[in-house]
């Protein structure tokens, strides 16, 4: 940008003269504040930063709607008005295009991806091909031939975009009227017709998502410490939430460490998921299918474990943050090793983990085991026993457990973190033999539609909640299999197996609640009244987050586990909230938790009838031990942190030419300089200028 030429100066004079009229075009005409936008944010680990951000004042670019990959030339080299804000339809949100945009050296101001309202026909996974490859059990010292997915690549469709770093903002837009306005603005103002250069004013967009943290976790934690001593301004927070757990027999939660007479079977599932964008991680197949199955199994076991208590206790665990290098399970194992959990690793008899189980083809369910620990005869025997129980439990069910024919490592699973600490027999249930059948692993499309949780179009929300979908029926079978297997693992009698079966009604309601709408009449009944405002009308976001408080999905799972495995007790609201059965009771809180839930509205009444639920469902911290130990560069534990930011927003407007903007700036500076000069001249020559009206300073009367 050179100095304004004479033409511009005359323009400027004209502009200043008719201030109200022609200078208006210089002002940005705001068209549209983007309301339903989801950003990609910055995350950091021990060595890297990933994700996206804008500059401190937001990134502005001329809109360009990309029509195809060939069309990229305009953005990358030939377009005359860089930087560009690129609008992509979801099918163009590919690694190839994004990497070209990434290396565009400043010609890209940002990207907005228009998320479709229905899932694409092809596959899409922005995750890595080998999830959590460095923090599982396989390493140079443990089954080296299986480390780094050498033997089985679990997520071959993964394009790794979620783990790239972009120095421009990337937002997702809902495909609605706003996007129509954006496209129209582009067509009206920016489209190059017959290779002519589009004329100003042009349609532009500003995206603002400046991130405070840079470089890596150690750096940002250091800056946290420094800034904390000056002002409580943090730059990043550890990813983390809470794990949920409960047991078929109450366990004294106040006494930590090894319990002499406890021998427990752990039934595990994971709670969290992620996607490229911050707030849309439905985690249907990757998370919901597994933990809904486990909750339904726990429900199916309530009667049997109360009436004919087997010798071993079954412990249900739901892990948070597993997506980010096993935050939840590594923390629980760490707590067990350090006497901060009411059980330790020696209390564990065996582990049954429920992975992705929502997409079974031909009714088969695959039993994954660890070939390394099975080289030990006694472990192998226990694993064989568990497999035998699974086969037995499947009698008369339409689900067939099958062991993979080739020896292969465990898929990414929480169980790997237990094996890392100690040899424990266990099996991981999955709907895939080797690579994932999930085409949308850790993406925004892993949703209700993908799991086929769909309803006839004429149903009211209340009818949808109750409607038993085919997917619910299929998962109910898996839940029954899991429940019966756990019962036998716990030492229960085979003769009682046929009395244990999961309830399709409960399964379908849970799928509705977690994949369609948490704010439904059933969930409202089983949560405390102060939680009702957190029940949303959108599918919950399963991204673990960094808020240090239990998230909506975590609490929902806890309340569900309490309802499905606990019992109602006739206790006043006050005693219930004080964790006791009556005024003198000081002991129950060690064994149980009490929740006063809203309950239903009885017929002919307007008020809900609350009641007290007693259960063993509890929360434990799911924050990586790396932050407990302040080892921010460790490779043993997850080190993921999330950057803080001030605001996330976007808007669209028309810009006059870049030159004109610079001119405005020039004029501003000119006016400033002139006024400075004038002030100087005036004050320097003040005695001359104002002498007539002034008395001599030394005048005395
Ligand atoms: C977006 O938000 C702005 C300000 O909050 C509001 O005025 C506008 O109506 C909203 N637009 C839509 C489409 O909801
Ligand atoms: C990967 O596996 C192959 C056999 O499948 C083996 O020959 C090779 O050594 C392995 N590579 C590593 C690095 O372990
Ligand atoms: C941090 O994340 C990057 C990007 O995914 C990865 O390449 C690197 O190995 C991770 N570092 C550690 C210590 O896990
Ligand atoms: C979108 O536009 C259509 C037609 O212009 C209109 O009927 C509809 O109400 C609009 N939707 C929203 C959410 O504004
Ligand atoms: C573009 O070029 C075509 C063929 O050269 C011509 O028919 C058409 O009118 C042109 N359109 C505009 C808007 O100039
Ligand atoms: C649980 O442990 C606490 C602390 O040792 C003890 O006071 C309490 O009596 C125990 N409760 C039961 C039921 O064993
Ligand atoms: C559990 O037992 C109760 C009463 O004994 C019965 O009403 C209920 O149907 C049983 N539930 C299951 C899942 O078997
Ligand atoms: C369960 O415990 C009882 C009493 O402690 C014992 O008699 C029985 O043999 C045990 N059953 C199994 C299967 O271990
Ligand atoms: C096999 O595992 C058992 C139980 O973990 C252990 O006590 C035993 O020492 C192991 N045997 C070998 C040969 O490692
Ligand atoms: C679970 O919730 C249902 C429906 O609100 C309720 O009828 C039942 O009593 C609850 N059970 C427990 C143990 O809280
Ligand atoms: C609950 O307890 C109260 C007072 O202790 C008693 O009056 C009431 O009948 C009990 N309700 C039930 C359902 O047992
Ligand atoms: C509710 O009220 C209606 C009319 O007042 C009455 O007929 C009905 O029996 C009531 N039902 C209950 C459960 O009290």
TrEMBL record:
Cleaved signal peptide residues: 1-23
Q: Which domain of life is it from?
A: Eukaryota
Q: Which residues form the Nicastrin small lobe domain?
A: 39-213
What InterPro entries does the record tag this protein with? Answer: Ncstrn_small (IPR041084), Nicastrin (IPR008710)
- Per the record, what is one GO cellular component? plasma membrane
User: Which Pfam families has this protein been placed in?
Assistant: Ncstrn_small (PF18266), Nicastrin (PF05450)
Query: Which residues lie in coiled coils?
Result: none
Q: How does it sit in the membrane?
A: Single-pass type I membrane protein
The UniProt transmembrane annotation reads: 662-682
* Subcellular location as annotated: Membrane
Q: State whether keyword Signal applies.
A: yes
Keywords annotated in UniProt: Glycoprotein, Membrane, Notch signaling pathway, Signal, Transmembrane, Transmembrane helix
Q: Which family does it belong to?
A: Belongs to the nicastrin family.
Q: What is this protein called?
A: Nicastrin
Task: Report the source organism.
Answer: Solea senegalensis
Its organism's taxonomic lineage begins at:
Eukaryota, Metazoa, Chordata, Craniata, Vertebrata
């Amino acid at each position: 940008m050179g100095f304004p030429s004479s033409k511009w100066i005359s323009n400027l004079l004209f502009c200043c003269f008719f201030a109200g009229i022609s200078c208006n075009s210089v002002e940005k005409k705001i068209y549209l504040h983007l309301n339903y936008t989801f950003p990609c944010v910055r995350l950091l680990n021990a060595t890297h930063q990933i994700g996206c951000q804008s500059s401190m004042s937001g990134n502005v670019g001329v809109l360009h709607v990309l029509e195809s990959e060939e069309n990229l030339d305009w953005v990358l080299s030939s377009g005359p008005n860089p930087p560009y804000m690129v609008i992509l339809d979801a099918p163009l949100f590919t690694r190839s295009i994004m990497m070209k945009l990434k290396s565009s050296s400043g010609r890209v101001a940002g990207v907005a991806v228009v998320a479709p309202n229905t899932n694409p026909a092809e596959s899409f996974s922005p995750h890595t091909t080998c999830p959590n490859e460095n923090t599982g059990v396989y390493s140079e010292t443990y089954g080296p031939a299986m480390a780094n997915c050498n033997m089985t690549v679990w997520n071959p469709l993964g394009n790794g975009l979620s783990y790239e770093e972009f120095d421009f903002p990337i937002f997702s837009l809902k495909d609605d009227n706003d996007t129509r306005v954006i496209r129209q603005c582009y067509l009206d103002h920016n489209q190059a017709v017959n290779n002519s250069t589009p004329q100003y004013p042009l349609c532009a967009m500003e995206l603002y998502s400046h991130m405070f943290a840079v470089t890596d976790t150690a750096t940002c934690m250091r800056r946290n410490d420094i800034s904390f001593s000056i002002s409580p301004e943090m730059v990043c927070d550890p990813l983390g939430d809470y794990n949920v757990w409960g047991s078929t027999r109450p366990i004294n939660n106040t006494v930590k460490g090894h319990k002499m007479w406890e021998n427990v079977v752990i039934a595990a599932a994971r709670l969290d998921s992620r996607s490229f964008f911050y707030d849309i991680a439905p985690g249907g197949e990757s998370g919901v299918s597994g933990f809904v199955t486990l909750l339904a199994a726990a429900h199916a076991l309530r009667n049997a474990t109360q009436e004919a208590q087997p010798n071993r206790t079954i412990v249900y665990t739901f892990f948070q943050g597993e997506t980010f290098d096993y935050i939840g399970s590594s923390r629980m194992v760490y707590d067990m090793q350090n006497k901060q959990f009411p059980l330790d690793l020696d209390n564990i008899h065996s582990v049954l983990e429920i992975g992705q189980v929502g997409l079974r083809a031909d009714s088969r369910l695959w039993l994954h085991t660890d070939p390394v620990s099975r080289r030990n005869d006694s472990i192998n025997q226990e694993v064989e026993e568990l497999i035998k129980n699974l086969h037995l439990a499947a009698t008369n069910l339409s689900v067939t457990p099958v062991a993979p024919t080739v020896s292969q490592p465990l898929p990414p699973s929480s169980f790997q973190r237990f094996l890392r600490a100690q040899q424990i027999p266990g099996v991981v249930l999955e709907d895939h033999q080797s690579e994932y059948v999930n085409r949308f692993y850790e993406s925004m499309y892993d949703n209700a539609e993908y799991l086929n949780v769909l309803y006839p179009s004429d149903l009211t929300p209340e009818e949808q909640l109750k409607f038993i979908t085919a997917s619910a029926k299929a998962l109910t079978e898996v839940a029954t299999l899991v429940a019966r297997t756990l019962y036998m693992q716990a030492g229960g009698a085979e003769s009682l197996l046929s009395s244990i079966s999961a309830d399709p009604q409960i399964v379908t309601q849970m799928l509705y609640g977690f994949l369609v709408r948490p704010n439904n009449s059933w969930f409202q009944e089983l949560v405390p009244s102060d939680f009702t405002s957190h029940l949303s009308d959108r599918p919950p976001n399963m991204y673990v987050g960094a808020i240090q408080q239990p998230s909506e999905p975590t609490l929902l799972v806890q309340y569900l586990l309490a309802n499905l495995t606990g019992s109602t007790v006739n206790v006043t609201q006050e005693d219930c909230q004080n964790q006791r059965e009556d005024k003198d009771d000081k002991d129950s809180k060690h064994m149980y938790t009490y929740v006063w839930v809203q309950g239903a509205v009885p017929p002919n009444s307007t008020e809900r009838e609350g009641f007290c639920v007693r259960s063993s469902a509890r929360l434990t911290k799911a924050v990586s031990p790396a932050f407990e130990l302040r080892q921010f560069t460790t490779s043993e534990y997850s080190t993921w942190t999330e950057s803080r930011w001030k605001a996330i927003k976007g808007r669209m407007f028309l810009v006059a030419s870049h030159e004109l903007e610079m001119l405005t700036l020039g004029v501003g500076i000119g006016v400033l300089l002139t006024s400075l000069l004038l002030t100087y001249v005036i004050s320097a020559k003040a005695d001359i200028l104002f002498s007539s009206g002034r008395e001599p300073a030394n005048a005395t009367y």
